[in-house]
Amino acid sequence: MKLNSRFFITLLLFSVFISSCKKTVRKDTVEANYVAEHYTKVEVDIEMRDGVKLHTTIYSPKDTSKEYPIVMQRTPYSSRPYGEGQFKEQIGPNIHMMQEGYHVVYQDVRGRWLSEGHYENMRAYKPNKTSNQDIDESSDTYDTIEWLVNNVENNNGRVGVWGISYPGFYATYATVDAHPALKAASPQACIGDFFFDDFHHNGAYLLSYFKVTSLFGTPRPNNDSPIDTAWYDFPDVGTEDQYQFFLDAGPLENLNSFFEYETADTPKIRPEGVTDDFFWNELKEHPNYDELWQSRGLIQHLKNVKSHVATMIVGGWFDAEDLYGPLETYKNIEEHNEGNYNSMVFGPWDHGGWARRNGRTSVGNYYFGDSISEFYQKNIETKFFNHFLKEEGDGNTGLPEAYVFDSGNREWKTFDEWPPKERVKKTFFLSENQQLTEESESLTGIEFISDVKKPVPYSEDVKTVFTPRKYMTDDQRFAARRSDVLIFETDVLEEDLTLAGDIMANLKVATTGTAADWVVKIIDVHPSNAETNEEMQDHLKLSNYHLMVRSEVMRGRFRNSFSEPEPFTPNKKTEVSFKLQDVFHTVKKGHKLQIQVQSTWFPLIDLNPQTYVENIFKAKEEDFRTQTHTVFTDSSIEFSVLQ
Known about the structure:
disordered N terminus
């Protein structure tokens, strides 16, 4: 494939993957050429302590009569457009800050695009640096800020960082060993650990990320020299039917050919000696939570976030890509850094939805309200950055610790802490006759057959896309009608039930095989008279809509340890417990709370062979076998609820 074609595909994928970084500007509010008319742009290469230069673009207000703070985003996705006279249509976290005036900085991280150096995916943090050669993303951020405050004219000496998704990871990184001038950081949908975010969920590999593996794992050509066009290819699977493609492909090892660069038929430009995608190799050679993944996780390094950095963590309750990261980032900063200004904002958004300015806020079929993102940008995000970068910065922002959206009542709520101190624990048992009860009844085993030739799809609308976002609110009636999905639900609720915080699944299970995955979904079953909204697909109605509120998978081999997997003993009752990420959702009076339990979720996650092998990435066709699974009625789901 030629570079210009590859570049075109890159732009198409980025429009989905980092839509948060390509925000839509409403022309009735800000003219398209606003940035060019009100800002000057310069591009510089800032030298790091080890001599590597990072390409940096600086937008500064043309009005030089006063000083402005600096807000910065570091990104692996390119700080383009490059070149004199080329401007972004919108800069900064939102248009309000852009109009008020900030120095806005974008930087290509080390080893990407026009920056020098070698790229490392989720570069490991080095806590004890002894020389200028000991670098990480924290030191690169520090050195960049040092240069900016000393070289950008009319800056007030205060710096903020923000970023969504992978740039959110770099924003979090900036708070560790932070430069004294860094006063505010807003990691948004921030990656925290690739074994629990994005590419894995509790050790299960997300096939939905298959298409973008090369984005993170393809070395730059010509000995890693800077390049301003895309140097990687995305796999062409040749079909729009993602389910059938992966089913026909079979074992994961059959996908290796998509990441082999040097072949007789398709020679490609790669560094000498490089024949395949190094990130794909890392995935398949490191199936467990070993030193490779542990060293790259950032969550465990948030014990010493500098106290002079105020943090505001932002996420979406229906983010299909990064939900673990922002929740764990907030919780770990909160737990280990007493006295820091640390807050969180979670709304009814998919990945980066808060950065868009569409009037109606919806995820897939489900509508949540009007101007929700605009409210956040104007009244929360701008207020946070203005306070710490332009005003007193004393912590008295007027904002709450937790600004959270109740996705069932469709309204914002505020709390002094998260989860709310007012919460209590409430346990429901998976009982016979599809009942979800508050008391454990007679002990029974409920069986279902998990057929590896007919796995349960994650949606009735499976297409070849990167990380299907709409599935997070998809109607689950199609799954409820399958024999390999177990259903447990309450009677029609006589009063509202508000779920507020994390959810624990405590399953008691058995299998005729030696391996299995376990998927738990939390469902809000709407009444028959629910009013349909305009976002709904034509063949659906909100009447009896089975709204998926939260879902998660646990790869059974990791039930006791993510580092040391183990098989099941056939037909032996075994405990499998795992956490589902937080929710804030009111199941309203007249609705029903439902739990769905299944063992396949395809092709969102890869297919478990259901026969234990040391490495599923190397499983053979004969390892994949249909098995019978059992869920016992002393299994339970524990919720945090508001009284």
